Amino acid sequence: MFALEDHLSRRKRGCLDGHFLLAMPSMSDERFERAVIFVCAHSEDGAMGFILNQPQPLSFEELVENLDLDSQERRDADKSRKIGMSECARNFPIQFGGPVDPGRGFVLHSDDYMTESTMPVNDDLCLTATIDILRAIKDGCGPVRGMMLLGYAGWGPGQLEQEMAANAWLSCPASDDIVFDRDHSAKYDRVLSHMGVSPAMLSMEAGHA
Question: CATH number for the domain including 78?
Answer without folding.
Answer: 3.40.1740.10
